[in-house]
Design brief:
Helices cover 65% and strands 0% of the residues. It has 99 residues and is mainly alpha-helical. The longest helix is centred in the last third of the chain and has 24 residues. It is elongated and about 65 Å long.
């Protein structure tokens, strides 16, 4: 079977070629590790800041929708996002980027 899988140039024959996984397994592992660290860092934020950050950056909700749901102004949203990002940056610098 192995000999039949390759052509005369030692390349995979199309019918035996491995399936493209779409992503480098090492990069996928690092991505999963990063998300775990990010979730841990989010858990240290005040609940409201973590929720706002997740809604805006992870769920990709529009600012106007978040403001309406929380009954806050757009400027208040941006202040809270700034605070969340600043605290997350510090946490990620210690727990991800310094490794």
């Amino acid at each position: 079977i192995i000999e039949q899988s390759f052509d005369e140039n030692e390349k995979w024959k199309p019918e035996f070629a491995p399936v493209d996984w779409g992503e480098n397994p090492e990069q996928a592992f690092e991505k999963n590790e990063f998300m775990e660290v990010l979730k841990e860092c989010l858990s240290y934020l005040p609940r409201k800041l973590a929720g706002i950050f997740a809604s805006k950056e992870m769920e990709q909700k529009k600012s106007e929708i978040i403001c309406k749901e929380l009954n806050i102004s757009l400027s208040n949203l941006w202040v809270m996002l700034h605070r969340a990002r600043t605290q997350l940056r510090k946490c990620l610098e210690v727990n991800w980027f310094s490794n």
